[in-house]
Specification:
single chain, 136 residues, globular, binds tetrahydrodeoxyuridine
Length: 136
């Protein structure tokens, strides 16, 4: 599919801008939204290690700042055989994804796998858990 190739190309290009002097592990992420817009991000590390930002977080920030809110697909690319979102990023993606959201994992040669988001985080915490909580 043409749009999937576009998502891949943008993630791959954005990965080149990753700032990963500590791990040497560059990651790119690209999101396609319900409005057919594409937003991308790369990991940005920091000398204070916990301050580092994952590629997914950068792509989500760009999406929200532009006014989009629904992730239809997200593609991750790294120089490894299977890059999947870390736990922290799964929670960040959960906030903006839908039942049918697809997570693609890619390496430098192409897409390696695809999974439904719900397979990666089947029992996540969501806004529903807050609204269902008894009020004090
Ligand atoms: N990283 C991401 O950008 N996304 C992930 O889902 C996994 C890990 C980054 C964080 C850090 O800069 C480097 O990869 C090594 O953990």
């Amino acid at each position: 599919m043409e749009y999937l190739q576009k998502l891949y190309d943008i993630a791959k290009q954005t990965r080149l801008n990753a700032y990963a002097p500590y791990s040497g592990f560059k990651v790119g992420a690209a999101i396609r939204t319900d409005k057919e817009n594409i937003f991308s991000g790369c990991n940005i590390e920091n000398a204070s290690y916990p301050c580092g930002i994952c590629a997914e977080a950068g792509a989500i920030s760009a999406m929200v700042a532009a006014g989009d809110r629904k992730i239809k697909e997200i593609l991750l690319i790294a120089d490894t055989n299977c890059i999947l979102p870390c736990g922290n990023c799964l929670q960040k993606i959960a906030e903006f994804c839908e039942a049918g959201t697809i997570v693609y994992s890619a390496d430098l040669n192409g897409i390696v796998s695809q999974r439904a988001f719900s397979d990666l985080l089947p029992f996540g915490f969501s806004a529903d858990d807050i609204t269902k909580s008894p009020k004090p």
